[in-house]
Amino acid sequence: MSFDYSANLVALQHLIDVVAKLRSPDGGCPWDLEQTPESLIPYIIEEAYEVVDAIQGGDKKAIAEELGDLLLQVVLQSQIASESQDFSIAEVAEGITQKLIRRHPHVFGDVKAENMEEIYQNWEKIKAEEKGEDLAATQKLSYKLKRYARSLPPLTAGMKISQKAAANGFEWDNADGVWAKFHEELDELRHALEHESKANQQAELGDLLFTLINVARWYDLDPSEALQSTNRKFIQRLETIETLSDRPIDSFTTEELDNLWKQAKEKLK
């Protein structure tokens, strides 16, 4: 496959121009004009997940479409920033280009890397220098865990944190230990829900979820994949119920919905 680089640049500039027009006080879109970097955060997360879903589905057309939606978020954030002269899309593109060049001296420079471990070590060293951090500090377990908590979705971060902590000695002797911890956290959540503040209830719920992630790790299960599968299964059953029923879902009694749910479950087996 050959690529027309000039066509690529024209297409990107067309998108930039369209977004600028949408944000223009003179004839722009009221919805786009109301948006702020903060208000767009949910859309960035949503579009990123939809890209992942499309990739997992293997539909090339859907992948291209969802990548376009994600690219829109990058351009829109950059447009908003440029309006207050914070930065431009050009600075965003040039910034990541220069970062890639700096962090790949074995490709763009004269550094020799014999294996993946050396490439990783060079990457971490350059990254620490860029951020003005002490390389030794970046190798501490707590630093790595903070990075996971900051950059990954909560379930994925929880699994990464659990795995790294276990590899460094924070581990139960056997599966009975993690199950005992699960039941301990479950009891604490129940107590908090009945007797404690909302903040404590939230904290205990987090402790229980983190312990459940550890249960998944012990049995080599992926909690994110499991929850995603359950979400899809629930929607499929709900869709089947709507097909089987002759009136809106919210008009059924709990008992009627339970019966329909059982029918849907059997139908989807």
Q: Can you walk me through this structure?
A:
The chain has 269 residues and is mostly helical. Helices cover 77% and strands 0% of the residues. The protein is built from 14 helices and no strands. The radius of gyration is 25 Å and the shape is globular. The model has no long low-confidence stretch (mean pLDDT 92).
Based on the model shown, name its key terms:
269 residues, mainly alpha, 14 helices, 77% helix
Question: Quick one: overall form?
Answer: globular
What's the story with the biggest beta sheet?
none
Strand content: under 5%
Q: Give the helix proportion (percent range).
A: over 70%
Tally of DSSP β-strands: 0
Low-confidence stretches: none
CA(first)-CA(last) distance: 43 Å
Give the structure's gist in a few sentences:
The chain has 14 helices and no strands. It is an all-alpha fold and 269 residues long.
List the helices and strands and how they pair.
Layout: H1 5-22, H2 30-34, H3 41-57, H4 60-83, H5 89-103, H6 105-108, H7 116-131, H8 135-138, H9 141-151, H10 154-167, H11 175-195, H12 198-218, H13 223-244, H14 254-267
